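Memo to structure team: turn this sequence into structure tokens by end of day. - J.P.
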Amino acid sequence: MALQRYGFIVKSADLEMFKHHARLQSDNFDMSVAGVSDVSQACLVAQEMITKGVQLIEMCGGFSGEDAQAVRDAINDHIPVGYVQYTDEERDRLKRELS
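Reply from structure team:
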């Protein structure tokens, strides 16, 4: 089966998983986007995404490798889960520019 259904989870303290979600669709692309405030909500959202046929989940840079593993565990490693990572240089830049 071709890869067509994606999930993306973003994190911010003021996001609510039942309120902040969207879907981007075209003929060959279907992405569910969900906003959560913490990793426990990300786990619940990931479980829901599985029921909707999502084939892979990506997590924003606000999540750690441990958070991604918690999501993998929550979905019994049913589909691939990745997360955005920044280089050391980019992390330093973020600290400088956002402080």
